[in-house]
Write a structure and sequence with these properties.
single chain, four-stranded antiparallel sheet
Length: 438
């Protein structure tokens, strides 16, 4: 029995019926339509949704700040000291309604099926849309470094709070455990540090040899070790935005009929329907307006040529080419104005692929005056003799058999055959030794 909800778990769900599998796209599309809305949020309804969500998590009512875009967070963090920000915002919440509901649902589903649902149900474009928050936070990494120092106590207290009730339940099982709990509560609340240090030596340290107490101690340290620093904190915040997608939670509740906390589920639905992007902290909840423009290709990937694929009311914009986010220097221009020589300096493999796709192989060969030196299967060794670099440029071009995407990677000028180039790229492994072709 779950001690919190009084629910008796049934045998874990191990597989889906055909009827259940057929319904999966329905729930994916349902939340896709809701979350892709460009209708301005109703701030009164959003306020109620946020306050209800915090109450369902057992948190006090936060101050709510509305932002015109994720990038507008700089208006908050850029004008205040880290100490003042921590007082105003509080530490980031390490758990939210999605995490709490997911943990409850996961206990009722066999692990292999749960992982399969996590893979099949979420919509990739919704994930990309939600993680715009993470990009906005990364821009302010230096300030976050100072905030991290100030946030650590708040984060640690959250972790202790999460595990405190579990520890109390376990201590009751030890001889004198109930007395220890009562004494500890009295000491920490009334008498202050000196006496608590004395009792720490006499009571707590002997208890630390007990396996259950040691496990509790590890449970506290593990999240802190995972966060580890500023970038870990940003990543943690990002993961909390979409830990388990709402599509998946809805499917498990509505189709698989999993037991759940109805108050939290209702609160989560309202939060997603009434708000745009939400970043939840202890004292403050940041609510961001929805984009005013969203453009997609026929496969529902964010896509626009020479204009933003995602645009907010304050002008903040994101460029994307068939689902791949572009830097402004590429996104501002239509692909027919992209230059082939950019391929030679672009280090990101995915962006190189996008440039090749947008420019076209024939124009690349023409602009860079590429000469084919050798070929092997779908690989072609090219040389470019123009003056775009201090020495001739050798490229290995490969056409992916399954997607027809053309990939090009620069190789050393001392290779003379396509097979030599492939061997160099694969750290000395001869392509004849490949068991499975790429």
């Amino acid at each position: 029995m779950n001690p919190k909800y009084g629910i008796i778990w049934q045998t874990k769900i191990e597989s889906l019926t055909e009827e259940q599998r057929i319904l999966m796209p329905t729930y994916r599309d349902k939340w896709y339509q809701i979350m892709m809305s460009t209708t301005p949020i109703d701030r009164q309804k959003a306020t109620v949704a946020v306050e209800t969500a915090y109450a369902a998590m057992g948190k006090r009512k936060p101050e709510i700040l509305f932002l015109s875009s994720p990038d507008a967070i700089q208006e908050i963090v850029g004008s205040r000291s880290p100490q003042r920000l921590v007082q105003m915002l509080g530490a980031p919440l390490l758990t939210n309604l999605q995490i709490q509901l997911s943990e409850q649902l996961e206990n009722q589903i066999e692990n292999r099926l749960w992982l399969k649902l996590e893979e099949d149900l979420p919509n990739e474009q919704l994930l990309r849309l939600m993680f715009i928050w993470q990009d906005a936070l990364v821009k302010h990494g230096e300030l976050l470094g100072e905030l991290w120092e100030q946030w650590q106590n708040g984060i640690f207290n959250q972790i202790v709070e999460q595990h405190h009730s579990h520890l109390r339940q376990q201590l009751v099982q030890f001889p004198g455990g109930e007395n220890f709990i009562q004494m500890g509560d009295f000491i920490w609340q009334q008498l202050g540090e000196p006496l608590s240090q004395q009792l720490d030596v006499n009571l707590w340290q002997p208890l630390t040899s007990q396996p259950l107490v040691q496990e509790w101690d590890r449970q506290i340290k593990r999240p802190l070790q995972q966060i580890g620093g500023v970038m870990g904190l940003v990543s943690n915040i990002g993961r909390n935005l979409m830990t388990s997608s709402i599509e998946m939670i809805d499917f498990c509740i509505s189709v698989l009929k999993c037991n759940h906390d109805k108050e939290k589920w209702q609160a989560l639905q309202s939060l997603v329907k009434e708000c745009g992007f939400v970043l939840q902290l202890e004292n403050t909840c940041l609510v961001c307006e929805r984009p005013i423009k969203l453009f997609q290709d026929e496969q529902n990937r964010f896509h626009a040529e020479g204009r933003p694929a995602i645009k907010f009311i304050d002008g903040y914009r994101i460029y994307s080419y068939h689902g791949v986010r572009l830097p402004d220097k590429y996104g501002l221009l239509h692909p027919n104005r992209w230059q082939a020589k950019w391929l030679l300096s672009e280090e990101n493999a995915e962006l190189r692929r996008v440039l090749i796709q947008g420019i076209g192989y024939s124009r690349i060969c023409q602009e860079l005056q590429a000469v084919e030196l050798d070929s092997w299967r779908e690989y072609h060794l090219l040389r470019i003799d123009n003056d775009v670099d201090v020495e001739p440029i050798y490229l290995l071009k490969m056409t992916c058999p399954s997607t027809n995407y053309i990939h090009a990677t620069r190789v050393p000028p001392n290779v003379s055959t396509a097979k030599e180039a492939i061997t160099w790229i694969n750290w000395g492994v001869d392509p004849e030794e490949f068991v499975v072709e790429t």
